[in-house]
């Protein structure tokens, strides 16, 4: 007699939960293939590095509008912010241009495009992507919920170290200090908060600078009357600024090309004066947008981003700045509107339209980068639960966070209305960008040691060169803190308090569950009925624990005289990986003897995965449970042989068992690491497959239990969630009482409930309240 075990886990869902790069790879709408298949094909080509030169050109062209919008619009405001008091010496223009040239060469080109971009986490960029890489290569996560089965995921790549290597010593140094883990987390949060501040300041400075061109031909117009023009063609923008730059160099002063010699930087500072040093704050604006470049990296392969910058962006920016410098050498009094004044009259209005459109694109790029970082922070437990809208059924990377969008809009309007002029916004903008660069340098130092395993001399060389340049810029922006530079510091401080307090509360809740979990001896002592009436139905008990029986369950059965016939402890766990393949999402194991009908299911998600309404979380959970039961029935007669270990599961003695009763423990041993239900059957399958298993005696037990659970499922499924209230102890210090009793309590009140995230029907929801003190 043959029984068929069908598995649909992960079938046909690649693009729903797949790689975010697909969001930009709808290249040819005329192809006969569906868009999902085309995106998957391009993604696989990228992973295998087999895409053609023509496809690389297409991807590079598309990256201009997404990745380089912010960096490309910098010529709108750099020279004005460099010389806000006017140009006193024409030679200063050459010195400033030389600084711009070498700033673009050292920071965006050499550091970011060719070094930092290679530190992506499977195509994902941003500070939290770097943090995720570090968490996989060293135990630096502040929430200790890691398990050895997590390391067996196909997306969980890591390297091993020689015990005496410098990388191993650095790893032990980080892991052995709680304060070092907290310092690393705070560093990541600071960089993230500064990028959020960048998302607020970029629309203000970019759009106002672009719209400021109206004042050249219409000097009486007010900024409030400026409309938004939508035609974001960034390629035309680069083409225009390069062409106008070449025209101005030829017409006004070809000698500005001598700025490519670094000797003019030395002469610029040799002439002395604090104004020349503080002008670095304006020159640094020429490299703004690199933080959005890295955060938006997930949309395209690194080679496309590198090609676009090297061939298009970099030379066009050099020509644009050189052309403005040539014009200012002849008309230094036009520095306030240098960009628009240098445009030939015949192409003025077309250029104004393109500039406005490019500024809007630049604003959208930083806002999208903010959404991505917030999503990553959510997965790491560092931001209150907010609604994340998946705006495309085909591409996972297209997300929208309504609450954050409203916050950015309100703060952007406040910044625009509150500052008196564009120069003050530029000062604030520069402060945010330079701090992000410093954070990235420090994180890259650890990436080079732990992930790339570079020689310490190379790490030291990269770190020192980066810090020398960036600390120089940082010292310049410090002079402008009182001239607008305080704004991103205040914004970042507010977001930092929110994120760290939320993470602290999340950590304490996890520690409370760990310390108050119920021993297995107590559960076994209650017997199969758990000392209660077992009513028909299934209870899904949600917990943050991946092992042990949570305190919420003991609290529940202590106060109620009945529980469900089947109890499943559900742990939804976020891992420091960009995605968890659907076929590897669920871990299932049994708790106690079979007649207890208790199970644990761990659902694992990456920081890029979304909980969508069409996921049908409950259905997939039961599919995994039924498959586990059938496989468990098949393996009941197996010993710990080599064939058994090939199946990918390890049968071991339960850690929660009763000591001194070895026979009973062996009979109730659990499948603690069913690391991939799909991989046990067919590791390489991605489509719906069927598998035939012979042996009626082996399948009968599993089939009976499946029928029993199906009957209980028909009787009703209840989702039991803990409503844990965190309070500070009376003897706690005042700042802890403020953080817990007011800030964290307020954030818990306004954030989304877990039931909304998992789309739990309200009629099937049961909240169990409990209070604990920290």
TrEMBL record:
GO terms for molecular function: potassium ion transmembrane transporter activity. It comes from the Eukaryota. The keyword DNA repair does not apply. Residues 1-29 are annotated as: Disordered. Keywords: Ion transport, Membrane, Potassium, Potassium transport, Transmembrane, Transmembrane helix, Transport. Potassium transporter. This is Potassium transporter.
């Amino acid at each position: 007699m043959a029984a068929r075990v069908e598995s649909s886990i992960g079938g046909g869902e690649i693009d729903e939960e797949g790689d975010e790069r697909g969001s930009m790879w709808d290249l040819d709408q005329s192809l006969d293939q569906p868009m999902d298949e085309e995106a998957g094909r391009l993604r696989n080509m990228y992973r295998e590095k087999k895409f053609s030169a023509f496809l690389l050109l297409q991807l590079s062209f598309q990256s201009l509008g997404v990745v380089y919008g912010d960096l490309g619009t910098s010529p709108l405001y750099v020279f004005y912010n460099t010389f806000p008091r006017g140009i006193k010496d024409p030679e200063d223009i050459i010195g400033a241009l030389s600084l711009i040239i070498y700033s673009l060469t050292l920071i965006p080109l050499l550091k970011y495009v060719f070094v930092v971009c290679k530190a992506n986490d499977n195509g994902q960029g941003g500070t939290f992507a770097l943090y995720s890489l570090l968490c996989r290569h060293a135990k630096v996560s502040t929430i200790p919920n890691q398990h050895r089965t997590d390391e067996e995921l196909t997306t969980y790549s890591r390297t091993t170290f020689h015990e005496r290597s410098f990388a191993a010593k650095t790893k032990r140094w980080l892991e052995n200090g709680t304060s070092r883990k907290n310092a690393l987390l705070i560093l990541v949060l600071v960089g993230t908060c500064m990028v959020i501040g960048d998302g607020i300041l970029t629309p203000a400075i970019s759009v106002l600078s672009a719209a400021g061109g109206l004042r050249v031909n219409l000097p009486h117009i007010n900024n409030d009357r400026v409309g938004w023009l939508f035609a974001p063609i960034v390629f035309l923008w680069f083409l225009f600024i390069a062409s106008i730059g070449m025209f101005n160099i030829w017409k006004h002063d070809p000698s500005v090309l001598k700025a490519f010699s670094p000797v003019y930087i030395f002469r610029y500072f040799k002439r002395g004066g604090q104004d020349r040093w503080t002008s670095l704050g304006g020159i640094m604006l020429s490299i703004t947008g690199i933080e959005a470049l890295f955060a938006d990296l997930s949309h395209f392969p690194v080679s496309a981003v590198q090609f676009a910058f090297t061939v298009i962006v970099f030379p066009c920016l050099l020509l644009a700045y050189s052309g403005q410098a040539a014009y200012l050498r002849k008309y230094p009094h036009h520095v306030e509107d240098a960009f628009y004044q240098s445009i030939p009259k015949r192409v003025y209005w077309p250029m104004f339209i393109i500039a406005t459109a490019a500024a809007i694109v630049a604003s959208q790029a930083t806002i999208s980068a903010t959404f991505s970082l917030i999503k990553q922070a959510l997965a790491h437990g560092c931001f209150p639960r907010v609604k994340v809208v998946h705006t495309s059924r085909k591409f996972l990377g297209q997300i929208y966070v309504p609450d954050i969008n409203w916050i950015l809009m309100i703060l952007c309007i406040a910044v625009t209305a509150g500052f008196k002029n564009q120069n003050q916004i530029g000062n604030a903008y520069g402060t945010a960008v330079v701090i992000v660069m410093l954070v990235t340098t420090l994180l890259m130092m650890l990436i080079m040691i732990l992930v790339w395993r570079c020689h310490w001399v190379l790490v030291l060389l990269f770190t020192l060169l980066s810090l020398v340049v960036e600390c120089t810029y940082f010292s310049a922006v410090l002079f402008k803190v009182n001239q607008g530079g305080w704004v991103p510091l205040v914004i970042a401080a507010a977001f930092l308090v929110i994120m760290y307090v939320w993470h602290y509360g999340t950590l304490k809740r996890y520690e409370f569950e760990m310390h108050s979990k119920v021993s297995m001896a107590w559960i076994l002592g209650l017997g199969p009925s758990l000392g209660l009436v077992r009513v028909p139905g299934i209870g899904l008990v949600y917990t943050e624990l991946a092992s042990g029986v949570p305190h919420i369950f003991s609290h529940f059965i202590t106060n109620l005289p009945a529980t469900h016939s089947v109890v499943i402890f559900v742990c939804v766990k976020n891992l420091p990986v960009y995605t968890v393949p659907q076929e590897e999402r669920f871990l299932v194991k049994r708790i106690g003897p079979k007649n207890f009908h208790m199970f644990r299911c761990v659902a694992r998600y990456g920081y890029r995965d979304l909980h969508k309404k069409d996921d049908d979380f409950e259905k997939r959970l039961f599919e995994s449970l039924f498959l586990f039961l059938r496989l468990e029935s098949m393996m009941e007669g197996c010993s710990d042989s080599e064939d058994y270990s090939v199946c990918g599961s390890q049968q071991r003695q339960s850690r929660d068992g009763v000591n001194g009763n070895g026979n009973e423990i062996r009979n109730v041993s659990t499948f603690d690491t069913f690391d991939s239900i799909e991989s046990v059957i067919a590791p390489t399958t991605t489509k719906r497959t069927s598998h035939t298993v012979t042996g009626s005696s082996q399948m009968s037990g599993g089939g009976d239990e499946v029928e029993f659970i199906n009957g209980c499922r028909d009787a009703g499924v209840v989702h039991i969630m803990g409503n844990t209230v965190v309070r500070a102890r009376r003897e706690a210090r005042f700042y802890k009482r403020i953080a817990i009793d007011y800030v964290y309590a307020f954030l818990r009140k306004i954030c989304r409930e877990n039931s909304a995230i998992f789309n739990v029907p309200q009629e099937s929801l049961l909240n169990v309240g409990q209070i604990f003190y920290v």
